[in-house]
Amino acid sequence: MTLTTITHDNVTILEMRERLDGQGTQQLEKTVEELLSAGARTLLFDFQDLDYINSSGLRVLVMAYQRLHPAGGTVTICCARDYIQEVFEISGYDKLFGMYETRDAALGSL
């Protein structure tokens, strides 16, 4: 997995490419922990170039939500491909995270 982090206003955008599993999940978890420790309160995961996510990848997203939500923070997802969107719908996580078709729509909601 390739991970790029950028900031737009007060939103930290995490762009992921390829597959979110195994070693990629460890990399994402470390990055999210560092961002949260540094005070990030609004995370936007951009899945435009993400081909696959497994349960350990979902776990990292849920961990971020569990840490941010009680403190008024937000975890949002954008640009998920249909089959990744389906994973969120089947697991019920589409109700947990704000999910948007485009980055602009996601940023507009934050």
Automatic annotation (TrEMBL):
Query: InterPro entries given for it?
Result: Anti-sigma_ant, STAS_dom, STAS_dom_sf
Instruction: Kindly give the CDD domains that the UniProt entry links to this protein.
Output: STAS_anti-anti-sigma_factors (cd07043)
SUPFAM superfamilies recorded: SpoIIaa-like
Show the GO MF annotations: anti-sigma factor antagonist activity
STAS domain ranges (all copies)? 1-110
Which family does the UniProt entry place this protein in?
Answer: Belongs to the anti-sigma-factor antagonist family.
Q: What is this protein called?
A: Anti-sigma factor antagonist
Lineage of the species this protein comes from = Bacteria, Pseudomonadati, Thermodesulfobacteriota, Desulfovibrionia, Desulfovibrionales
